[in-house]
Write a structure and sequence with these properties.
eight-stranded antiparallel barrel; single chain; about 30% strand; alpha+beta; three-stranded antiparallel beta sheet
């Protein structure tokens, strides 16, 4: 033991950790630092830096499968909402990119109980619904939570399926989305997986008008800080995703 060191300084595990130090502490801290640096560089969210924030409505609907045992889903009705449609990497317009659909429902489960949902363009299949899928067209395919939610006592994915209704392609860049909304609202069916992995609709999302917000005014979406009773993200990668959200927020606010 070196001079001036305490006995505890030399007590380490084989992996170099001090007793009681979380195994994932350093990787999670690295994720937070990386997202903070990227957000500071972009002066926007670390991921999905380019997008449009829009007014929207969420209509909670019933189906023939019975109650959800989730308070906000079993109380049918309309909610005002905000939506952000974005591109993950900010690639040129004609290049497929990961498309994001972020939804905020203020007071979804009563006053001060806001719900955030973050969905990403994905495949339709049993396995590809867990994977991000780059696309150029907002209405080309579904958006998925990628990782499971806890809905009542079940673990299941969430998804949004666009209604094309005869519309042509909608480029995923802000200008393309704005042009599409000028011609009429964009409509999505919000669904959760059923027990047999088929989709069960719980709401209809209607995206209407572009809000005059600059990129620096983009909302901070966080599915962990804004979830509601019996309807919350599961624990898979929770620590890593929380760190990414913290880092992105901190980077945007840095001078």
């Amino acid at each position: 033991m070196s001079a001036g060191a305490s006995p505890s300084d030399d007590i380490r595990t084989a992996g170099g950790r001090r007793p009681g130090q979380p195994i994932r502490a350093r990787p999670v801290a690295a994720v937070e630092a990386g997202f903070r640096a990227l957000a500071r560089l972009r002066e926007a969210p670390a991921l999905h830096p380019h997008g449009l924030t829009c007014t929207a409505e969420v209509e909670v609907v019933a189906d023939r499968s019975g109650p959800w045992r989730v308070p906000w889903l079993d109380a049918r009705g309309h909610h005002t909402a905000m939506v952000r449609l974005s591109r993950a990497a900010g690639l040129p317009r004609r290049v497929p990119d990961g498309l994001g659909l972020a939804v905020r429902v203020p007071d979804a489960d009563g006053p001060d109980h806001t719900l955030d949902l973050l969905l990403t363009s994905s495949g339709r299949g049993r396995f590809t619904r867990h994977l991000p899928l780059p696309r150029a067209d907002v209405l080309r395919g579904p958006y998925s939570s990628l990782l499971p939610y806890r809905v009542a006592d079940r673990r299941c994915l969430l998804a949004a399926f666009p209604r094309r209704a005869g519309r042509g392609p909608v480029p995923g860049d802000p200008a393309g989305v704005a042009d599409a909304l000028a011609a009429g609202p964009l409509v999505f069916d919000l669904c959760a997986e059923g027990g047999d992995r088929t989709w069960r609709r719980f709401a209809v999302l209607t995206v209407r008008d572009v809000l005059p917000l600059g990129q620096e005014e983009t909302l901070d979406f966080d599915i962990y800080r804004r979830s509601v009773r019996a309807f919350a993200p599961g624990g898979a990668l929770a620590a890593t995703r929380r760190a990414a959200y913290r880092g992105s927020r901190a980077g945007r606010r840095a001078p």
